Structures are given as C-alpha cells and as structure tokens.
Automatic annotation (TrEMBL):
Protein name, entry field: 3-oxo-5-alpha-steroid 4-dehydrogenase C-terminal domain-containing protein
Main location: membrane
Keywords linked to the UniProt accession: Lipid biosynthesis, Lipid metabolism, Membrane, Oxidoreductase, Transmembrane, Transmembrane helix
Membrane topology annotation: Multi-pass membrane protein
Organism whose genome encodes this protein: Hohenbuehelia grisea
PROSITE patterns: S5A_REDUCTASE (PS50244)
Transmembrane stretches, start-end: 233-253, 259-278
Residue ranges the record marks as coiled coil: none
UniProt cross-references to InterPro entries, sorted A to Z: 3-oxo-5_a-steroid_4-DH_C, SRD5A/TECR
Occurrences of domain 3-oxo-5-alpha-steroid 4-dehydrogenase C-terminal (ranges): 147-304
Any matching Pfam family: Steroid_dh
Cellular localisation: Membrane
Length: 304
C-alpha cells in the first residue's frame, strides 16, 4: 500500500517531504511514524503529529491506514521531553525552595525567625505533599502520552516553582507567622488542637488523593490500551476525585494561615484543575455513553 505523507509545518526536518511510503495493508499510524523516522532519523515518532491532509486533528497511533486514508500530513512538534521528567522537575522546585527559605531565613528576611508550630506544620505539609508527588511520578503514574514539547517544561515548572515554591515559602515562613508574632502567639493558630485537626484533614485529603491515583493505575494492565470506567471510593461522586482531594489539602493550608500567597496559588490551581476535570468528565461521557454513571459531577460533589 502506497501512502503519501506531506509536510504540515515549516521545519528543516521536513524539507524532503512529501514522502511516498510503501506499507503493509494492515499498517497503522504508528507504522507511518516509524517509517518516517527511518527515512528522517532526527524526526522521531514522538515529534510527529500525523493527520489527514486538510484536517488538523491528530490521528491515534492505532488508527488503521485503510480507514484514515493514504494521503496524510506530518507536523514536527519540535524537541520533546518525557512527561515523567516534566513532573519530576516541576515538583522538585518546591522541595528545594521551601527548605532553603525555612532553614535560612536570614538570607531571605535579613534576620532569624523563631518558627512557630504553625510554620512547622505548613512546612511539613508542603514537603510531604511534593515528596508524595515525586514518588507517585516514579512508581504510580502511567502516562498515556510518552512526551510533550520541551518548551512546556518551563511553563509548567513556573507555576510550581514560583507560586507554590518561592511565593508561598517567602510568605508563610516570614516573621509575621513566627512564634513571637501577635498574628500567631496566643491565637487559635497557636492552639495544638487547631493544628492537629488541620493535620488530620490534610492527611485524609492526601491519602484519599493517593488512593485515587492507585485506582486509576489499576484500571489498566501494563502495556494495555483498554479503557474502563473508574469506580469505587471518590468516583461515586465525581469523575476526577484526585483533584477534589487535592483542593481540600491546599484549602487546609489556606485556612490555617490565611496567607495571600497560599490563596493565590490555590485559586489558580483549582481553576486549572476545574478546566481539566470538565474536559475529562466530558471525555468519559462521550466514550462510555449511557454506561457512564449519570449522577457523577466533574470535580466537586453535587456542584460541578
């Protein structure tokens, strides 16, 4: 079967296009990508977006060419980086920044800070949260796409490094929240009961978030592309309970400190998670149709 592949972007790697590929009748889009990479080694399969000529919608790797047609276009997506690498870099930022600000206050504030129990609790919450994320990236998450454009690592990392990293750390470890500050000393923020109740709610949210990730991982066997409806704890109410539980965890920090940096980060994060949740919810309903539970909301139980 002859397949003609033309260029859909201005890239020096596509200067010899169009190409004519000789493929088996059972060939898929993945076979097209492999054949292109064989002829243009620098254009790896992960850099390629294959579509039908005149249609920008990308074709899935398992789409058979006998159905998609033999006139295709390839777009160079540019240098790629693995999703796992992106996640590891994103979460490493706060894990480096928070200890620096917490343990070296003179470097950031010009004087030492006697840390309050509130600051110690928040420090533990943040470090454990991002350490959990790093471990989930290494041992729990399976990524439906192997790579993303290299430039995205800078955009994605900025959100975590600047907002949940530098801004949050600088705000909550400053003298205002210190042990001798009237904002904390002698107030509810200095109460062990208040701190431990906050810690209990935070731990519930983090463990529930982890449980959700493990449920999603167990939906598919390694190497399988079969998709199933997620069910069980959390999924009774919403399509993406991991976002719901993460929201609770960050709200605990917001209410315990009333830090403007914590609120700004949480509002931005929840807004973005809400967009992703709606998209995922709609995708589930489209894919599974009437089989998908009708009573589920996208992210917040009984709300949306």
């Amino acid at each position: 079967m002859k397949v003609i592949v033309s260029s859909a972007s201005r890239s020096p790697l596509l200067k010899n296009f169009p190409l004519t590929l000789d493929l088996a009748p059972s060939a898929t889009v993945a076979d097209v990508k492999a054949a292109i990479a064989a002829k243009a080694p620098k254009l790896s399969a992960s850099r390629q977006k294959i579509s039908v000529v005149g249609d920008k919608k990308p074709l899935a790797d398992d789409s058979p060419i006998s159905v998609t047609g033999t006139e295709l276009a390839v777009k160079d997506l540019g240098p790629q980086v693995s999703w796992k690498t992106v996640f590891l870099v994103e979460y490493a930022g706060p894990l480096i920044i928070h200890p620096l600000v917490f343990h070296l206050p003179r470097l950031f504030y010009g004087n030492d800070v006697k840390h309050s129990n509130l600051q110690i609790f928040v420090y533990a919450f943040v470090v454990l949260h991002f350490l959990k994320r790093e471990l989930e990236t290494l041992f729990v998450h399976r990524f439906s796409h192997a790579t993303m454009p290299l430039g995205n690592i800078f955009k994605n990392s900025a959100h975590y490094h600047l907002f949940s990293g530098l801004a949050l750390a600088y705000d909550v470890y400053r003298p205002k929240y210190g042990a001798n500050s009237p904002y904390v000393h002698g107030t509810v923020r200095d109460s062990p009961e208040f701190l431990w109740v906050g810690a209990a709610v935070w731990l519930f949210a983090e463990l529930s978030n982890l449980h959700t990730h493990l449920t999603l991982r167990n939906l598919r066997a390694p190497g399988s592309r079969e998709r199933k409806i997620p069910r069980g704890y959390g999924f009774t109410w919403v399509s993406v309970p991991n976002y719901f539980f993460e929201t609770i965890a960050w709200l605990v920090i917001c209410f315990m400190t009333n830090s403007i940096a914590a609120w700004v980060f949480t509002v931005i994060a929840v807004g973005q998670m809400g967009l992703w949740a709606v998209k995922k919810h709609q995708a589930y309903r489209k894919e599974f149709g009437t089989s998908y539970p009708r009573g589920r909301k996208a992210m917040i139980p009984f709300v949306f």
